[in-house]
Amino acid sequence: MRPLPISSTELQARIARAQRLMRDYNLDALLLPAGTSLRYFTGVRWSLSERLLAAVLPAEGPPRFVAPAFEEPKVRQLVSIGDEVRVWQEDESPFEVVAGLLSDLNAKRVGLEETTPYAFVRGLAAAAPSIEWADAVPVVSGCRMHKSAAEIEIIRYAMNLTLDVHRQTHQSLRPGVRTTDIAGEIDRLHRAAGADDGSTFCIVAFGPSTAFPHGPDGVQSLAEGDTVLVDTGCTVHGYHADMTRTYVFGDPSARQREVWNIEREAQQAAFAVIQPGVPCSAVDDAARAVLTRHGLGPDYRTPGLPHRTGHGLGMDIHERPYMVRGNNLPLAPGMVGSIEPMICVYGELGVRLEDHFYVTDSGAVWFTQPSPAIDSPFGA
Fold it and tell me: Which residues form the Creatinase N-terminal domain (predicted)?
């Protein structure tokens, strides 16, 4: 059954948590520009553009909104928490409007959400020179990293939707099919299954081009014996799915099977170390230890793993926490992340198996079961 979207009650709880953290970090307000953090805290879905549209969240009380005047009717339809919308005309400075709002709130120290464009930061600093602008990451990520039960269920639904699209894609492969044809069909399948907007992205690669982590340039056609890598996802209620499967079209060679089995061993080793309190870096360390034992790497060298082992996921496809060397942030219940210790052998093949986990009080749980074997990538 399709899960319900995030409720107004949960939005209110997020705001309350953020305000507690703001007091801990001595912030009088947060500025949330258009984007996923705005939607996360207020429910307002709006894409970032050159025109400033934002919410100002004070340490006490409801959010206040700043918007272009011609967008006010639409914004008021979207706002469900708070009712103040201050507007600016095309020949006026939106930053002066924000400065006036902050002055009315008596805000002295204001946190900036990390995706705030530099042009906005520069304009705000000029319009409100007495404000101390601070990093809002401890507050925003302090909320967003810890998923609720409702968020977990939405992500689980989205992941299983994408897993089924992967299965159908695997079954439909035929000699000569082009990477672009497959990507188009994956988008159609996501839309038919009820994803928000079809595929959010799609990487399809064959043969030696599977070694490029973010896919090759140009179009390829499938041939017998090719390694096949498909990495795709969608969103449901604004929450991402992201999953990679690698297999062979036809019978795997001994070499393809060898590399694939090492990749799976590394993925499983990374998963096994996840517990509350364990640093994020330990997940990366566990995967690399397996690769090094098999003569790959070391470190970021190839053949081997040239990037981090995993990333957090939620309303952004890549968000905190990151499973990377040096990240001592302790894992905690509710955190969500990928495990994808891709093996890149440039000029030959690449293998990435990507599944996501969430942390519970007793360890990690997969959203989707990983591939069991190269010649049975989706099990029985």
Answer: 14-145
User: Is residue 299 within 8 Å of residue 259, measured between CB atoms?
Assistant: no
In a domain, 380, yes or no: no
Q: What DSSP letter does each residue of 128-139 carry, written as one string?
A: -TTSEEEE-HHH
Same domain, 137 and 224: no
- Segments forming the whole domain that contains residue 219: 149-366
Q: Tokens 């990374």, residue?
A: 270
Quick one: CA torsion of 295, 299, 302, 304, rounded to 10 degrees?
Answer: 60
Please state whether the predicted TM-score (pTM) of the whole model is above 0.85.
yes
The Cα angle at residue 377 between residues 176 and 343, in degrees rounded to 5: 85
Residue 126: CB atoms within 10 A of its CB come to 12
Neighbours of 285 (CB within 10 A): 17
How big is the chain, counted in residues? 380
Identify whether the C-beta of residue 6 lies closer than 8 Å to the C-beta of residue 281: no
Q: Are residues 251 and 116 in the same domain?
A: no
**pLDDT tens, residue by residue, 183-197:** 999 999 999 999 999
